[in-house]
Amino acid sequence: MTTGTTAHILGPADGRSVQIGGLGVRHMIESARTGGSFALVEHPLAPRALASPVHTHTREDEYSYVLEGRIGLQVGEETIEASPGDLVFKPRGIAHAFWNAGDEPARLLEIIAPAPFATYFDEIAPLLDPSGPPNIEALVGIAERYGLELDPDSIPVLVERHGLSLGF
Predict the structure, then answer these.
(1) Apex CA 11: angle with CA 127 and CA 146, to 5°?
(2) Full domain range(s) for residue 78
(3) Taking a C-beta distance cutoff of 8 angstroms, is the pair 163, 72 a contact?
(4) pLDDT band for position 133 (cuts 50, 70, 90)
(5) Has residue 61 been placed in a domain?
(6) Is it the case that residue 4 has pLDDT exceeding 70?
(7) What are the pLDDT digits (tens) for 65-85?
(8) 137-144: average pLDDT
(9) Quick check: 112 and 39 in contact, CB under 8 A?
(10) Nearest Cα to 145, choosing from 113, 117, 112?
(11) Position 116 in a domain
């Protein structure tokens, strides 16, 4: 894709996708299409799946629009739940995590601004292969390149507190 003024239609099955445990990532509008200003991804989430541990972006803001299901979020010290039609702003510099808070599949659209962070998902997917334990050292290394501060110790806390699974 390239930046331009022409219309772009993405069908419901179009776009590159990766699966990371219970979190799906479908690239809908990629960085090249917007000149790097933003990316749009769709995140299907399995029931009760943890989508991400507590983490802090140092370069991006994220906007999550819930399409279906119930999304639980920790933003800073606040825990909230978002439903279809809700838009949640997760500004850079504020620690956050999110998960499917329900027993049914959930789906949200996420705007990432600026865009380059969206390729992070493609890089970490092979490191979270369900056939073996995750390579935490490699994950942290990739996160650092993207200016992302991960808190892997938050995973068991979130899983227990909210009755979640990792989807592996």
Answers:
(1) 30
(2) 17-162
(3) no
(4) confident
(5) yes
(6) no
(7) 999 999 999 999 999 999 999
(8) 90
(9) yes
(10) 117
(11) yes
Dump pLDDT digits (tens) for 87-119: 999 999 999 999 999 999 999 999 999 999 999
What single string gives the DSSP state of each residue in 43-101? EEE-TTBEEEEEEEESS-EEEEEEEES-EEEEETTEEEEE-TT-EEEE-TTS-EEEEE-
Q: Is residue 80 part of a domain?
A: yes
CA distance readout (Å), 47 to 72, 100, 105, 131? 12, 6, 5, 21
Phi, psi of 58 (to 5 degrees): -100, -10
Q: What is the CATH number of the domain that holds 123?
A: 2.60.120.10
Is 81 inside any structural domain?
Answer: yes
How many domains, the chain?
1
Q: Which residues pair with 106 in a beta bridge?
A: 45
- State how far the Cα of 50 lies from the Cα of 64, in Å rounded to an integer: 15
Portion of the chain with pLDDT greater than 90, in percent: 79
H helix or E strand, kind and range, residue 137: helix 136-145
Instruction: Indicate if the alpha-carbon torsion angle 103, 25, 143, 129 is positive or negative.
Output: positive
State the CB neighbour count (10 A cutoff) for residue 7. 5
